[in-house]
Amino acid sequence: QVQLVESGGGLVQAGGSLRLSCAASGRTFSAYSMGWFRQAPGKEREFVATISWSGGSTYYADSVKGRFTISRDNTKNTVYLQMNSLNPEDTAVYYCAAAASWYGSSAKRESEYRYWGQGTQVTVSS
Fold first, then answer.
1. In angstroms, rounded to a whole number, what is the distance separating the alpha carbons of residues 69 and 74?
2. Residue burial 14-29, b: 16+ Cβ < 10 Å; e: rest
C-alpha cells in the first residue's frame, strides 16, 4: 500500500505560479513512477505529467508543456508539480498517483496508476 497526500493548492491570479507537493508513505517510494492528473468541473480527469522512478525521465501533456515541471525527491518521498504562467483553464482538482516503476515516464492513462491521492484544488482567477 502507498498513501498519497497532496498539498499546495489554492487560489492564484492568471499568470501566477503554484507548487504542488505529494507526500507518499507506505511502500518504497522510489519503486514507483509518479504522475499528476487533474479534473476540471464537468470534465473527465486528464493526464498532466509523469516522472520515472529515478526522476531522470519526464513526460507532459501538450497543454502544460513549457509551463509545468514535475520533479521528485526520493529522500523525502515527495513528488512536486511546479506550475507557472497559470491560466483559468488550469483550474481543477489536481491528483497525484503512483504507477509501477517499469512504466518509466510512459504511464499516461488512469488505469496504469495503482494508488491515488485525494486531490488538491487549484483555482486560477482571470
1. 16
2. eeeebebbbbbeeeeb
58 Cβ partners below 8 Å, 6+ apart?
A: 49, 50, 51, 52, 70, 105
The candidate with the shortest Cα–Cα distance to 6, out of 67, 64, 81, is 81
Which grid cell sits at 68? 509545468
**What's the average pLDDT block by block, 10 residues per block, for the chain (126 residues)?**
95 98 89 96 97 95 98 96 98 96 88 96 97
Strands 120-125 and 10-13: parallel
Element (H, E) at 100: strand 92-100
Q: Are 15 and 86 in contact (CB under 8 A)?
A: yes
